[in-house]
């Protein structure tokens, strides 16, 4: 009886210590892992969010870039990290597309993470070289149909936003194009500007300035609703242009290792909701063409449901294209 009493007392003491420790969280810097190189759109979102999170979290937040393998190396690092709230992942749509692209992943998207809430969505645009004969989407569709087998479509590499959008665009158009992958958006855009490739589908964060300068031609946006950005507001959506149901945006969310204490997750989610209302953060995201998530997907459960739906959406598209990496 005495031994049982001592065991229960020890357990109670351990629980009290644990609760007390997490009540004081964070006691050291929190690392947000970005699974891509510094300077890209996802890195920019992470650094802007870190600034907005510092005050509501009450601690230091640092960014660690762990690029490679389409974002899976950084995601793996977080999946295997200690579940203590000090290492979290900020990832984009690749969270839902990597399982179909990579056959030897070291984590399971739905099983190995705690979902913490979504951050934003970034629209995409279909653009073409400035010398393309077409001047609007209707003319582009006719040109694509008349040049089957001769069209080069650039992307920023396997699993990139432009690669995924390009796959869905080709399938929706029922036109096979020669896919030209690059090691990043910059070289892909350089060749589009130089006329070495014909078209590309990429995020507004990468295309808006080129569209505004007249260096590329813009034909449509990929979201269900038209955009309000002045230089993009006159572009039709692909849905209203005839590709019914076409709706693609690049979203970002936060994830923690499986088993992270609920008290930590709750505090982080509350801080995230505060950060998403931060005026400076909103201003910076709007400048990138991004839309802050304000619906139920800022909550962990709805965030996870959304990613599961995206897994089901993109898996068949990627498998039908037969494009995957070892």
Automatic annotation (TrEMBL):
Gene3D superfamilies reported in the protein's UniProt record: Bordetella uptake gene, domain 1, Periplasmic binding protein-like II
Keyword set includes Ribosomal protein: no
Alphabetized UniProt keyword annotations: Signal
Keyword Signal found: yes
Short name of one Pfam family: TctC
Signal peptide interval: 1-23
Family: Belongs to the UPF0065 (bug) family.
Protein name: Tripartite tricarboxylate transporter substrate-binding protein
Organism: Ideonella margarita
Lineage: Bacteria, Pseudomonadati, Pseudomonadota, Betaproteobacteria, Burkholderiales
């Amino acid at each position: 009886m005495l031994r049982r009493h001592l065991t229960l007392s020890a357990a109670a003491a351990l629980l009290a210590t644990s609760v007390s420790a997490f009540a004081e969280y964070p006691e050291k810097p929190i690392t947000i892992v970005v699974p891509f190189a510094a300077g890209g759109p996802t890195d920019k979102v992470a650094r802007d969010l870190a600034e907005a999170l510092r005050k509501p979290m009450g601690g230091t937040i640092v960014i660690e870039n762990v690029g490679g393998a389409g974002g899976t190396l950084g995601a793996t690092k977080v999946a295997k990290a200690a579940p203590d709230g000090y290492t979290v992942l900020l990832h984009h749509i690749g969270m839902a597309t990597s399982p179909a692209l990579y056959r030897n992943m070291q984590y399971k998207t739905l099983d190995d993470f705690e979902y913490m809430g979504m951050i934003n969505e970034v629209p995409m645009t279909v653009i073409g070289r400035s010398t393309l004969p077409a001047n609007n989407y209707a003319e582009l569709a006719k040109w694509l149909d008349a040049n089957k087998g001769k069209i080069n479509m650039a992307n920023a590499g396997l699993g990139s936003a432009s690669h995924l959008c390009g796959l869905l665009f080709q399938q929706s158009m029922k036109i096979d194009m020669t896919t030209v992958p690059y090691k990043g958006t910059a070289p892909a855009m350089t060749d589009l500007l130089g006329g070495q490739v014909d078209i590309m589908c990429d995020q507004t964060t990468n295309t808006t300035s080129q569209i505004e300068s007249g260096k590329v031609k813009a034909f449509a946006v990929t979201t269900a609703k038209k955009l309000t950005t002045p230089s993009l507001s006159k572009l039709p959506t692909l849905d209203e242009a005839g590709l019914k149901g076409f709706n693609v945006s690049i979203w970002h969310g936060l994830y923690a290792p499986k088993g992270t204490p609920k008290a930590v997750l709750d505090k982080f989610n509350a801080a995230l909701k505060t950060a998403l209302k931060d005026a400076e953060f909103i201003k910076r995201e709007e400048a990138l063409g991004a839309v802050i998530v304000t619906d139920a997907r800022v909550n962990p459960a709805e965030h996870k449901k959304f990613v599961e739906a995206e897994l089901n959406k993109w898996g068949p598209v990627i498998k039908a294209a037969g494009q995957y990496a070892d």
